[in-house]
């Protein structure tokens, strides 16, 4: 496939093009992903998550510099489910970051939600798979929060870094919302601000007993703006990667990521089928429900029958040769 | 059907039983709903939404008293997507409310999420349909926030009341989050607190130009605890119901509710099918994806073929007699 050849040859425009095709679910992009997927599984995917105002973007920029100083290529995927595609703060941060790294071995991509139904999670998983197959040894996925936004960072990343800052009351908020539990590392950014020492102490208490086999969750004070603590943070991230590869936890997370990718892909496919294949009959049935001629459940039963028929008609004819 | 006969005969235990059957998707409950659904469409469904701490429960209790004073029966459905079924504040509020109204013409039901996949929205719609068919002229649906929690109050309620209070910074927050736009009435609760006058003024400015044909969104200061402003609030709710019934907006909302009920039911049905009908093959395919033998999209394509087959096998044989 031409695009894969261009990526392998190091054409700088080929990878952005592939990611766009994957995001748009272009058949050429999905076919390329099928080809590339078996190549992957070698990258260390690091998730950076934390509330707005915690300085995630600055932290990612500092980490990128540190990873480059260690001689490795690095890709950044910044996911912002709340922004429209042309919008706001994330894009601005991204542009500043690109200016900082006019470096061919740093690849930066941002992904916004576009208000798509069920589409962001599979698109993000596809982008990570493509970056992995393209040979980046480290992929940073930056996202706000966990879970609620439809992107479960744990299913994309092998190592999850939860960022907190003093002064937002976020320590307590994060503990309440269960965000800390997803972290393999807890980072207190802006550690020179008042309250940082208290927050570190609170997080250390909260982190006791968390972690996975062979790994205790460290709490690391850093200042992304000055660079203080960043070498130690990268060392801890790398150490977590080594622990994962050495034990059963890494394989468990690979399987969980695979499960999440399949499930979110299946949901998205069913949503697309709902949207595309039943619109005429759906309108009539909804009219009947609105007129109270039909209960919603009865309408759903009719639509499922219709979907089954449409799916069978549209499926690969080879499928007819299946046994059973 | 026995349960419907008991509801019609006024057996106080029959309606709670039906709602439990509907929530659990028991076939007897869904069959009863099919029978009851054409009877409905007469109730005025009033949604009460607002942030935690805005005093929604107290406001609902005050409204219930006022509706009873007007001689009407009333049902309350309190939805709390964040609580487990046995949990917390909502249940406590509900119990206090039940003690207040040891009144056979007030029916109160709370519904929590139980962590169900895709199931809360159809369950809530089913409960409203059952309460409607059971003859309650007013049904109050109380829920936190809008949209994000999976329950879109606009698709359940004909009249939406958005509650705000001074001192939480909620006026500004709600405007940012687009919550005000869903309100047919805006209520400033705890209107005796400092800042209430400013909040009322801010909301009046924000509400200008909102509303639907024949309806300008009023901003009503009330004190649910003392009862100040509650008669005026009920009068405004009733007036909105009259405006809806008189114009095209009521029919539009009925159709939107029908559409949402069908779509959420369809999603839930597909989720159940994913969960129940493919678990063996799904496990094998996920293993193959985790081992990088197969791309997630290829696994999804195989599962869709499998789902089509399962659905066709499981469908009503009468379906085979359809034309086309």
Question: How is this structure best described in words?
Answer:
Two copies of one chain form a homodimer. The first copy, chain A, has 324 residues and is α/β, with parallel strands linked by helices. Chain A has 13 helices and seven strands. Chain A has a seven-stranded parallel beta sheet, sandwiched between helices. In chain A, strand 2, helix 5 and strand 3 form a beta-alpha-beta unit. In chain A, helix 2 packs across helix 3 and helix 2 packs antiparallel against helix 6. The longest helix of chain A has 30 residues. The first copy, chain A, is globular, with a radius of gyration of 22 Å. The C terminus of chain A is likely disordered. At the A-B interface, helix 3, helix 6, helix 11, helix 12 and helix 13 of A face helix 3, helix 6, helix 11, helix 12 and helix 13 of B.
């Amino acid at each position: 496939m031409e695009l894969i050849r261009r990526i392998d040859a190091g054409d700088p425009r080929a990878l952005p093009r592939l990611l766009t095709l994957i995001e748009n679910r272009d058949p050429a992009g999905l076919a390329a992903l099928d080809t590339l997927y078996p190549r992957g599984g070698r990258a260390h995917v690091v998730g950076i998550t934390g509330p707005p105002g915690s300085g995630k973007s600055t932290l990612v920029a500092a980490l990128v510099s540190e990873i480059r100083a260690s001689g490795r290529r690095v890709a950044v995927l910044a996911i912002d489910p709340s922004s429209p595609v042309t919008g706001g703060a994330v894009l601005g941060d991204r542009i500043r970051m690109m200016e900082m790294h006019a470096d061919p071995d740093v690849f930066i991509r941002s992904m916004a939600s576009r208000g798509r139904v069920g589409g962001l999670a599979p698109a993000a998983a596809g982008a990570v798979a493509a970056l992995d197959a393209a040979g980046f040894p480290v992929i940073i996925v930056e996202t706000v929060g966990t879970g609620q936004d439809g992107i479960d960072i744990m299913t994309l990343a092998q190592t999850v870094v939860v960022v907190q800052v003093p002064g937002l009351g976020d320590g307590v908020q994060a503990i309440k919302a269960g965000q800390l539990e997803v972290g393999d590392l807890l980072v207190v950014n802006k550690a020179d601000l008042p309250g940082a020492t208290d927050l570190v102490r609170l997080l250390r208490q909260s982190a006791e007993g968390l972690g996975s086999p062979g790994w205790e969750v460290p709490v690391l004070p850093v200042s992304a703006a000055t660079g203080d603590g960043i070498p130690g943070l990268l060392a801890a991230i790398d150490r977590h990667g080594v622990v994962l590869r050495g034990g059963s936890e890494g394989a468990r997370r690979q399987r969980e990521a695979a499960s999440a990718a399949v499930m979110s892909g299946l949901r998205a496919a069913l949503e697309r089928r709902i949207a595309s294949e039943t619109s005429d009959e759906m309108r009539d049935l909804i009219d009947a429900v609105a007129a109270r001629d039909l209960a919603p459940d009865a309408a759903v039963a009719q639509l499922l029958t219709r979907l089954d028929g449409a799916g069978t008609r549209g499926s690969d004819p080879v499928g007819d040769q299946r046994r059973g």
